[in-house]
Amino acid sequence: MIVRRLMAAMLAATAVAGAGSAAEKVPPLPPYVAAYEPTNVDERGAWMIADEDERRLRDSADVMRDPALNAFVRGVLCRTVGEDRCKGVRLYIVHVPAFNATMRPNGMMTIWSGALLRLRSEAELGAVLGHEFGHFELRHGLADFRNRRSGTDLMAWASVLVANSAAFQVDMVGGFYAFDRAQEKAADMIGVRYLAASHYPSHAAADIWDRMMGEADATAIGRHRKPDQRYAAGFFASHPTNLARATYLRSAAAELPDADGSAGVDGYRAAIAPWLPMLLDDQIRLNDFGGSEYLLGQLAVGGWATPLLFARAELYRMRGHPRDLVSAAGFYQEAIARGDAGAEAYRGLGLALMRSQQVEPAKTALREYLRRKPDANDASIIATLVAS
Amino acid sequence: MRLRSLFLPLAAVALACGVPAAAGNKLVVAGQRIAVAKSAMTVLPTSEWNRLGARPGRAAETWTLDGDALNDLTFYGGIESGRPLFREVSRKTKPLPTVSTTMLVTDIPALLENSYRIALGTASMTIGTIEPATFAGAKGVHFTYSFVRQDDTLRRRGEGRGAMIGGRLYLITYEAPALYYYDRSAAAARQVAESAQL
Q1: Which CATH number belongs to the domain containing residue B52 in this structure?
Q2: What's the total number of domains in chain B?
Q3: Chain B hits for A384, Cβ within 8 Å
Q4: Chain B residues with CB-CB distance to A59 below 8 A
Q5: Which helix (H) or strand (E) holds A330?
Q6: How far is CA B123 from CA A3, A159, A170, A280, A374, in A?
Q7: Range of the structural domain that residue B115 is part of
Q8: I want to staple A196 with a disulfide (CB 3.0 to 4.6 A). Which of A114, A162, A256, B96 is the partner?
């Protein structure tokens, strides 16, 4: 939702900024009403559908239920929008490797695991969740419903990376439809407002944007397409639009009194660390070499940690061009040299070397894998490769 | 919106392939060796099956007993280098990984896993055990897997047998809901897969 919202706001902002009034007035936070009940037939209908969807999601195997991770994400939401507001939200972390977050009119919020991989700090997570909450608070779902539109905002983040592998769950929405720029702007403004009221720096929302665009471009280039084809297809006018968007969010942030607190980079990294190998594995299996390589590069800005090196090695080995296999072997070796790589690094190294016809070094690495993980699920077939 | 958006693609699919697909379904008789997936691969079923007219891909074909949602035996007959396992949902936005002549046997389960993850939009696809096996007289692989389709709660189990032969991928998969159906038709499916010859 956010991305669609951000894009809409961005498009709207382009026109405005172009006219020379980039600084938008940020409306004050509306008073919050707890335990709101739907008031008319449209709204009751929208809630009924949302309630049914929530029942299904609640029982879905795709929901990540780890208490520590849920407590962390929920904590960020509560610190962003405030304790009283966050009580009205049920938050579900959904295991889908795409960048998205959604909000339904009954207070069901989702954030997808692909977003957790791509965000960098508590403030950025707060920006995403706060924007979603803004739609809830302003009851945009109802307005959507009245406009005979989906009422769900599932297109959202995924649509930015629609060129991406990660166009998951787009089927549920069934296509792109016109969106309401005024809503986007309203949710955007209230999202920035939440951030400003929290102790997180309010410019975080703008920071997410460039990386998203960069990844979408990298995906397109990786698939031998022009990066700008996608913009012509409906969403973005061009790159300057993105620039205008960043300007617009930043100027809104600058206008607000900011607590100037920590963005919570370390806390975010620590909370995500246990999940990082799984999130990376999901990503590299999407057959999106360009986007994944870009993402890994972004994640490795502070240095190539072992999980990142291993994921990069796996990514190259999966693509499997002869030069990729050489690169992959190098990355596995780097990961191994760091001393904290898992047994799978030896497996990958061995298989990459085996495909490069370096049979003896390959067997040595595979033997090491079997020594370290004798009960691996593929131990018997690896043993036949060693013996062959 | 949601209903309308669901209805249109469904209607299109029904128009495009529903009728011809149903018309193309055919009984596979027991006890006769039969070529599958438009390839040189043959199998000898000892019980009756139904061959679906709708093919998952150019060099693929599906057999079933009760419908492909309940038991699905799919043959991939000699997928060439550079081709995906089955038809892509969208070559532009969701391209599938492709077969390579230099693939190792251990890459076969990974290819199926990644293809399913992309095509079915599910991160729940996981490979269980991977073991060496003889397939159609060649050194191959036998592996198990399981997944839940997007927006579904029913876990499906599967197993695959395959090998790279002459630079092409030959693979037979059997999958069914873990609940009841998998065990019920597993023996018949294994018998067919183990009878594969080139």
Answers
A1: 3.40.1000.10
A2: 1
A3: 132, 139
A4: 153
A5: helix A322-337
A6: 22, 18, 15, 12, 27
A7: 25-194
A8: A256
Tell me the residue length of chain B: 198
Does the predicted model carry a pTM greater than 0.90?
A: no
Set of chain A residues whose Cβ sits within 8 Å of the Cβ of B107: 320, 351
- State which amino acid sits at residue B96: L
Q: How many CA atoms lie within 13 A of A193 on its CB side?
A: 17
Q: Which of A286, A351, A385 sits opposite B118 (nearest CB)?
A: A286
Partner A contacted by B144 (CB < 8 A)? no
ipTM attached to this prediction: 0.86
> B68 in a domain, yes or no?
yes
Measured CA to CA, the distance from residue A212 to residue B42 in angstroms comes to: 49
d(CA A320, CA B100): 8
Whether residue B132 lies within 8 A of chain A, CB to CB, comes out as yes
Q: Which of B93, B96, B123 sits opposite A97 (nearest CB)?
A: B123
Q: Strand pairing of B42-43 and B49-51?
A: unpaired
Surface of B (54-93) touching A: CB under 8 A: 90, 92-93
Question: 3.40.47.10, 3.40.50.300, 3.30.70.141, 1.25.40.10: which CATH number matches A304-388?
Answer: 1.25.40.10
- With CA atoms as reference, report the closest residue to A214 among A318, A101, A301, A135: A301
Domain ranges for chain A, please list them.
2-255, 304-388
Does residue B17 sit within a domain? no
- Strands of the sheet containing A108-112, edge to edge, are A90-94, A108-112, A101-103
- Per-residue pLDDT 10s for chain A (388 aa) are 444 444 444 444 333 333 333 344 555 666 666 667 777 777 788 788 888 889 888 888 889 999 999 999 999 999 998 888 888 899 999 998 888 888 888 888 999 999 999 999 999 999 888 888 887 777 765 565 554 444 344 434 433 433 333 333 333 332 233 344 556 666 777 777 788 788 888 777 777 777 777 787 888 888 887 775 444 333 333 333 555 556 667 777 777 766 667 888 899 999 999 999 999 999 999 999 999 999 999 999 889 999 999 999 999 999 999 999 999 999 999 999 999 999 999 999 999 999 999 999 999 999 999 999 999 999 999 999 999 8
Q: CA B166, CA B147: separation in Å to the nearest integer? A: 30
